Amino acid sequence: EVQLVESGGGLVQPGGSLRLSCAASGFTFSNSYMTWVRQAPGKGLEWVSNIVGSNTYYVDSVKGRFTISRDNAKNTLFLQMNSLKSEDTAVYYCARGAGPYDYWGQGTQVTVSS
């Protein structure tokens, strides 16, 4: 059974940092294209970043602030988020694939507020 479980969300002040994790199981993680997607309150899904092998890609709004990475030995995907802004407030999901995504996690809430 494929499972993706996110963690690491929370409340942070503008300019702060958070590190999201996504623990994967039930498939060959090291070979998989992995993605972070977010959904802000009242808005649709927005692709944030993905990684395949050592190649990484980001939406323009997070470039230079967010870093996607993976630990294949631990089957875990990460999203390091620095210099957070209020507009980064959203539920963050990890997903398998490059779109369409065949498996999703349950999401983790990130709230950026003073």
Q: What is the radius of gyration?
A: 13 Å
The description of the largest β-sheet is:
7 strands, mixed
Secondary structure category: mainly beta
Calculate the terminal CA-CA distance, rounded to whole Å. 40 Å
Describe the structure.
By secondary structure, this protein is mainly beta. It has no helices and 11 strands. It has strands spanning 3-7, 10-12, 18-25, 34-39, 45-52, 55-58, 66-71, 76-81, 90-96, 103-104, 108-112. The radius of gyration is 13 Å and the shape is globular.
Give a nutshell description of this structure.
The chain is mostly beta strands.
Secondary structure layout plus pairing:
Blueprint: E1 3-7, E2 10-12, E3 18-25, E4 34-39, E5 45-52, E6 55-58, E7 66-71, E8 76-81, E9 90-96, E10 103-104, E11 108-112
Parallel strand pairs: 2-11
Antiparallel strand pairs: 1-3, 3-8, 4-5, 4-9, 5-6, 7-8, 9-10, 9-11
Provide tags for this entry:
0% helix, 114 residues, 4-stranded antiparallel beta sheet, mainly beta
